[in-house]
What we know:
Helix content: 55-70%
Radius of gyration: 23 Å
Amino acid sequence: MTKNGSANPSRKVRRRGSIDVVDAKVAVDLATAQTYSENVFLFVPNLIGYMRIILAGLSLHFMSYHPKYCTLAYVISCLLDAVDGQVARALGQTSKFGAVLDMVTDRCTTSCLLCYLSSAYPNFAMVFQFLIALDFSSHYMHMYSSLVTGSRSHKLVTSEVSRILWYYYNDSRTLFFMCAGNELFFVSLYLMRWVDTPIGLGVYSPWLEHLTWPEFVAIPSAFVCAGKNIINLVQLWKASKILVGVDLAERAHARELQAKKE
């Protein structure tokens, strides 16, 4: 603490890899003492994040009885996901809190929709449950593996670790395409329960006679969804290997220290 009782940010800061590690108590004191001129909670991109949460809550409220309002709120919430990061970089307001808030909002929003789809399509409930588990586990393990290896962001993946993840996280167009296509598929499945009017493609093929527009959108977006979840599997596997590698390195270091003592 400084003379005036505020937290000293230079106290109890240690280095681990490429990231400064701040003592938890010091971090809490800093967050409590922050002013309105430098309040991370009130950063513009984080305010956008709060708006995303409100919109996601509204979509859940309307999900069971008003598909138009639900879809509108859900889609806007997802589109704002592509905005907050750009705003953060433009205003110099990138933050670890914002990055985690963004990821948690993504995971929770998609999972809530998948829970509804599990009840709407009970024969595929296990598939949706698997997708929820894969999404959460792959991102949690990836985030944790990034932290223990000293990375400043879970998106900073080198091509030496995984060329697939490097291309996925470092090309903004690819990231947007995969995430948008994945959400579009789930939204299409949701709307298929409400829309049953054919779009009139039966003149081209009898197979398309009863095709609705949500089904039409779901067909190509299903391939994007499949690709996104393959990436989740790769992310889970790579994160597992990184964590095991850290364990092996720490165990080897512990044996070296033990040998020196003996």
